[in-house]
Amino acid sequence: MSYELPYSFVLKALYPFRPSIRKLFGCYALMKERRILMLLREREQQPEFNGVFVATIPAFFEELQKEIHTSRMEFDVDGADNTWIFISEDLDDFELKVKKACEMVKNGDERIGK
How many domains is the chain partitioned into structurally? Predict the structure, then answer.
């Protein structure tokens, strides 16, 4: 299935890793096997939530926030607290922070994904 993803630089930053892509929660989920790694969201409704959501588990949440981005917004996209790091598209360094997360995925960082 072919999708026109928001933030086209993400797939380029992940190369040569090729995630599977699935529509999920009104976003595009980038997945490795059955694990969600990231959600990409760019929609007209509630644009303040547009950006990239990096998936993790509570045990790694604070540690990854320090490495990737600390958001003032808390999300429980799937009903679980402290499992999504939100990188807003409005940030000046949005692309830099997302590329950092992509680099971590490419390097096999097991803290990313759930």
Answer: 1
